[in-house]
Amino acid sequence: NKINNKKMNALENKVAIVTGGGSGIGRASAILLATEGAKVVIADVDVEGSQETVTKITAAGGEAIFIKTDTSKPREHELLVEQTVEKYGGLHIVCNNAGIGGPLGPVGEYPIDGWDKVIAINLSGVFYGMHYQIPAMLKSGGGSIVNMASILAIVGTRNSSAYVSAKHGVIGLTKTAALEYADQNIRVNAIGPGYISTPLLTNALDDDTLKAIAAMHPIGRLGTSEEVAELVLWLSSSKSSFVTGAYYTIDGGYTAQ
Ligand code: NAD
């Protein structure tokens, strides 16, 4: 698994930011992008998890750094982009992936502060990110942005109004940004994973609930972060050069039902 041994890496000389790269889908995506030759900046609030991601990448011969970033704060995105360009000389790929599940409960009982927090991280965080990322990408000659939505961006579920609303918003934001920059060599797409076995899910739910959720996917299991990372890689690479403003489900058939 030596990164440097690979020839013809798809992302050679590319610079990538992965938000929420300290765990789960973000970590797997960061590792895969680095394996294809990208220099990766992990942007996350979790210092320990992020350092582990960086170590995994550098131990395999890849290039990565961690820049502590709270994606719900615009100024932190501004600094993140500044420091990324300072360190690696440009910005070509972003996976806006940081997100939280938030509290559970019906709308009539949903905590207002919980709503505000989920919207701040899962929706506003993606807007703040692109707001600073896009000018840097334009200066770098263009690139590809992959926003992490969810199946809950196209269908609802009970007790997660803030999450569902934020993810639906990410799709609209993705399409709009895609239209605005399509003729300037920046592609913007969104991904909709079904339920993926990550700490976001496994820390929040007990085994019986996880089994029941797995059974809701026609493939009959939860997805893995590595499976989602493959789609992030494809959308980040020039192999998807005619794809923009799109939303791709990766959900074991969940939304086909
Ligand atoms: P995870 O909890 O394993 O990882 C999320 C990472 O985001 C963590 O490292 C966390 O520290 C970081 N993060 C949280 N808030 C942040 C903030 N304000 N600023 C910076 N970083 C922050 O979760 P995951 O399952 O890998 O989720 C990643 C993304 O995928 C999320 O956007 C999530 O909504 C989405 N998603 C997950 C699933 C699933 O079933 N796990 C399904 C669909 C979509």
Give a quick set of tags describing it.
257 residues, alpha/beta, 8 helices, 7 strands, 44% helix, 15% strand, globular
How would you describe this structure to a colleague?
There is one protein chain. Helix content is 44%, strand content 15%. The longest helix has 28 residues, at 112-139. By secondary structure, it is an alpha/beta fold. The chain is globular, with a radius of gyration of 17 Å. The N and C termini lie far apart (38 Å). The protein has a 7-stranded parallel sheet with strand order 3-2-1-4-5-6-7, sandwiched between helices. The protein has 8 helices and 7 strands. α1 (24-35) packs parallel to α2 (47-59), α1 crosses α8 and α4 runs parallel beside α5. The site of nicotinamide-adenine-dinucleotide has 29 residues, from α1 and α6.
**What is the topology, as strand order, of the major beta sheet?**
3-2-1-4-5-6-7
Q: How many helical elements?
A: 8
Our Rg estimate from Cα atoms comes to 17 Å
SSE order, as H and E?
EHEHEHEHEHEHHHE
Gist of the model:
The protein is of the alpha/beta class.
Give the helix/strand layout.
Blueprint: E1 15-19, H1 24-35, E2 39-44, H2 47-59, E3 63-68, H3 74-88, E4 93-96, H4 112-139, E5 143-148, H5 161-181, E6 186-193, H6 199-202, H7 207-215, H8 225-236, E7 247-250
Parallel strand pairs: 1-2, 1-4, 2-3, 4-5, 5-6, 6-7
Helix pairs in contact: 1-2, 1-8, 3-4, 4-5
This protein binds nicotinamide-adenine-dinucleotide.
Nicotinamide-adenine-dinucleotide is lined by residues 19-20, 22-26, 44-46, 49, 69-72, 97-100, 121, 148, 150, 193, 195-196, 198-201.
